[in-house]
Write a structure and sequence with these properties.
- Helices cover 49% and strands 10% of the residues.
- It contains 22 helices and twelve strands.
- A hairpin with an 8-residue loop joins strand 3 and strand 4.
- Helix 5 packs across helix 7.
- The longest helix has 24 residues.
- It is globular.
- It starts with 5 loop residues before the first helix and ends with a helix.
- Bound molecules: D-mannonic acid (CS2).
- D-mannonic acid binds next to helix 11 and helix 15.
- It holds the Pfam family Mannitol_dh_C.
- InterPro entries: 6-PGluconate_DH-like_C_sf (IPR008927), 6PGD_dom2 (IPR013328), Mannitol_DH (IPR000669), Mannitol_DH/Oxidoreductase (IPR050988), Mannitol_DH_C (IPR013118), Mannitol_DH_N (IPR013131), NAD(P)-bd_dom_sf (IPR036291).
- It catalyses: D-mannitol 1-phosphate + NAD(+) = beta-D-fructose 6-phosphate + NADH + H(+).
Length: 485
């Protein structure tokens, strides 16, 4: 079976939806994983299709492993997106990527692209851990060896290093203003990225850092965004199914739920793709959208994943079909998350929460608990702790957010050094020999994820220890009873 490429597509009687001869590169994307392909790339392609403006082709930079480059580069950047679940449309071939750069192998080319005069927007999906920030302070972790190497002038490999070095070259070349758009699940992702780049500049020696900082403040904007689409890891079986339907082999195929949403702060330093023509909402205030999504969807997702793993479920849909886990997620989002939010104008909170819970239940998606459970040390903070604080502040018990934290701790204790997390070694090092609640909970409270005031809050830590004990007893009946109380 031939591989998906421009030639093979045309030979099979189809053509790319965009006129590839007219396509120019206007966007550099860092982190060309599955989420980018199913979300950001689709919006950008749709914006070009809706307007006929083909100046927003994407230079796609792959993350740490060479695998994504091997998938995309031999296919002329083409890939398919296949929707699964109620209302799904036909598979589509996305043709918005003009080149694929191997991030780890070609760091200087990445810096060049960020500095190219034609680049007016840099977008990023590098996941929470890709920012290399201290989970507690949100500041750049300058002790991280990769960050240090970038600061010392090595060809940059971290996302913040690539951006800062690209901006520096842009400044030297006078290549004009640019906007850098974080599309990851962090609260205040734009401002956060802006301050990480400023931290990088501050850590450079003397005048070099000052110049970069001043130029960035003047010529670069970091809009906030809320991104939403559930995108599982593509499996070997998915690849075969796509091949059967397409008649070509697509190694870069992605699977996604039909739903997608993008809310973008309209604060751009230079021109931008007309994403509103592709269904994105461009607005002055993204925060309420971002917080609602993080505290309802992402928090609910994490709770289902960690509790689901303790209950032996492989997929999120299986968790959503389990009355005990589903009830816990329902109560977390309705009783704790929603009341803690300042909802965006026009968003009906309970209806939003129900729509999210229904999306979790999509049995066709195959989103695994293991994938959502990964990198918990980076996810607990933005997803759950603001809700814990808000519930405590109003004088209530954060029962359900404490349950999610306890389920995460249980997962960490069960996985030990095999836990998939950038802080795996730290977490494993903290684990005591005895794995009872009284031993584990106080130790993991010291992982550098929980702020001092929560570690010192007896109500919160007591609830976490209580739930940890219930989960650890492996008594599903008792867990179900507690959750129904
Ligand atoms: C998930 C998210 O893996 C995870 O942690 O919660 O990737 C989630 O699927 C997306 O944010 C949905 O928009």
């Amino acid at each position: 079976m031939s591989r998906l490429t421009l030639d093979s597509l045309v030979r099979s009687g189809r053509s790319p939806s965009l006129d590839r001869g007219a396509l120019r590169t206007g966007v550099v994307h860092l982190g060309a994983g599955a989420f980018f392909r199913a979300h950001t790339a689709v919006y950008t392609e749709d914006a070009m299709l809706a307007t006929g403006d083909t100046s927003w082709g994407i230079s796609a930079v792959t993350g740490r492993s060479a695998r994504v480059w091997e998938q995309m580069a031999p296919q002329d950047g083409l890939f398919t997106v296949t929707e699964r679940g109620p209302g799904s449309g036909a598979s589509r071939v996305v043709s918005a990527v003009t080149e694929t750069l191997a991030g780890p192998r070609d760091p200087l080319a990445v810096v060049e692209r960020v500095a190219a005069p034609g680049t007016r927007v840099v977008t990023l999906t590098v996941t929470e851990k890709g920012y290399r920030a201290d989970p507690l302070t949100g500041r750049l972790d300058v002790r991280d060896p990769a960050v240090r190497a970038d600061l010392e002038g090595a060809p940059p490999l971290t996302a913040v290093g690539r951006i800062a070095r690209g901006l520096q070259l842009r400044m030297l070349r006078d290549a004009g203003p640019v906007s850098v758009v974080s599309c990851d699940n962090l609260s205040g992702n734009g401002d956060r990225l802006g301050s990480l780049v400023a931290d990088f500049a501050d850590a450079l020696p003397g005048a070099e850092g000052e110049r970069l900082r001043a130029w960035t403040a003047e010529s670069v904007s970091f809009p906030d965004t809320m991104v939403d689409r559930m995108v599982p890891a593509t499996t070997a079986e998915d690849l075969d199914l796509v091949e059967g339907a397409l008649g070509l082999r697509d190694e870069a195929a992605v699977i996604a739920e039909p739903f997608r949403q993008w809310v973008v702060e309209d604060r751009f330093a230079a021109a931008r793709p007309p994403w509103e023509r592709a269904g994105a909402l461009l607005t002055g205030d993204v925060r309420p959208w971002e917080e609602a999504k993080l505290r309802v969807l992402n928090a609910g997702h994490s709770l289902l994943a960690y509790l689901g793993l303790a209950l032996g479920h492989r997929t999120i849909a299986a968790c959503a079909a389990d009355p005990v886990a589903a009830e816990a997620a329902h109560r977390l989002v309705h009783e704790e998350a929603l009341p803690s939010l300042r909802l965006p104008d026009g968003l009906d909170g309970p209806a939003y929460a129900e729509s999210v819970l229904a999306r979790f239940a999509n049995p066709a998606l195959g989103h695994t608990t293991a994938k959502v459970a990964a990198d918990g040390s980076q996810k607990i903070g933005p997803r759950l702790l603001p809700t814990v604080r808000a519930v405590l502040d109003r004088g209530d018990e954060p029962r359900w957010s404490a349950l999610a934290v306890a389920a995460w701790m249980h997962h960490v204790a069960a996985a030990g050094p095999r836990v998939e997390d950038p802080l795996a070694a730290t977490l494993a090092g903290l684990l005591p020999d005895r794995r009872r609640a009284a031993d584990v909970v106080p130790r993991l409270m010291e992982a550098g994820i929980f702020p001092g005031e929560l570690v010192a809050d007896g109500l919160f830590t007591g609830l976490v220890a209580h739930w940890y004990g219930v989960i650890d007893s492996a008594d599903t009946l008792a867990l179900g009873k507690e959750i129904a109380l």
